[in-house]
Design brief:
With 116 residues, this protein is α+β, with helices and mostly antiparallel strands. The chain has a single domain, classed as RlpA-like domain (Barwin-like endoglucanases). 16% of the residues lie in helices and 36% in strands. It is built from 3 helices and 8 strands; from the N terminus they run H-E-E-E-H-E-E-E-E-H-E. A hairpin with a 4-residue loop joins strand 1 and strand 2. The longest helix has 8 residues.
């Protein structure tokens, strides 16, 4: 249900109908990161777009503008952060729980990128 509501929020609506935006399918490296690796405190943990981090935020490659919607493993994300330049090309999901991030690991999966 949440996926459907997020998917509907990506639709382009006109008075007569709503259509899904074009999407591109790619296979990419997806990892997870936590405040442990990136922040001295949660109050100072700010993403590249200027917002404070939140569970489920995602760092995207630089070629995707902030706000680009991506679908990974059936979950929708908005690009709100950037990966380190040496990792440009991968997607990195923010998680507060360090053990969950370790369990997520490094995966090579299909990513759907929705055109803005």
């Amino acid at each position: 249900m949440i996926l459907l509501s997020l998917l509907f929020s990506t639709m382009l609506c006109k008075p007569t109908a709503c259509v899904l935006p074009e999407r591109q399918s790619i296979v990419a490296t997806v990892t997870a990161y936590t405040p442990l690796e990136t922040c001295t405190s949660i109050e100072t943990c700010i993403m590249a777009n200027g917002q404070r981090v939140y569970d489920g935020a995602i760092a995207c490659p630089r070629k995707y503008p902030f706000g680009t919607k991506v679908e990974i493993l059936g979950k929708m994300y908005d690009c709100t952060d950037r990966t380190a330049e040496k990792f440009d090309g991968r997607f990195d999901i923010f998680m507060f729980n360090h053990e969950e991030a370790l369990t997520f690991g490094k995966r090579h999966v299909k990513v759907y990128v929705y055109e803005r």
